[in-house]
Sequence to fold (215 residues):
Amino acid sequence: MPEVPKVFISHSRRDKKYCHSFADACNSVGLKPFLYELEDIKPPHWKTLQREISQSAILFLLIGKEFTEIQKSLTPDAWLFTQNWIAYEIGVAAQKGIEVWVLCENTDINFPVPYFTNLYFWEGNLAEQKELIFFLKTYKENKYIMFDKRMRHTCSNPNCRITYNIIQPLAKGAKIKCPSCLRITEFPEGFNLNTKQDCRILKTFAGMRLRDTKL
Fold:
């Protein structure tokens, strides 16, 4: 029997409902999510996290409203511990060459994510954002998603210049905060409003094209 692909969920326990909704989505398509609180992991914690990330097909960083609101209202002592562990997890994923998705419940984010490949705004409602299930099903099948180049965006900050995929179209005048440098970027004409976004589904182990799919 083939091994069930794993996904690693980097998160704050403050966003419990948001994270469990995503874990349920992973389970529903047959993916095995690694979603644990640090207190429930046998020490040394870094060793377990490193192993689980290495065994995962992809890492999802979930940033919900609860965590971002706490960062605004409380002193750094209340959330720096979580931020530091998230930074460690992202660093391991970067070193291993694993894709990192940043899933945001809204457009706000208050700590830098040094490495990520895809940005997706998800409000926690699978019924209204069914494309997320499509992506999860693709990873469950051990396939790789090559997004349309028109979905690619490079941060305009000369001190950042990170390039990543913005998964959804953005309305005219939309503003988003770059998850890496935290600088706000405005899109006066919107982003990918009048084009159909294509993605190619590839076998990860062979790089062989399977089919084209329009989102």
User: Anything to note?
Assistant: DSSP finds five helices and twelve strands in the chain. Residues 6-214 form one domain. The CA atoms of residues 197 and 215 lie 6 Å apart. The two ends are 31 Å apart (CA to CA).
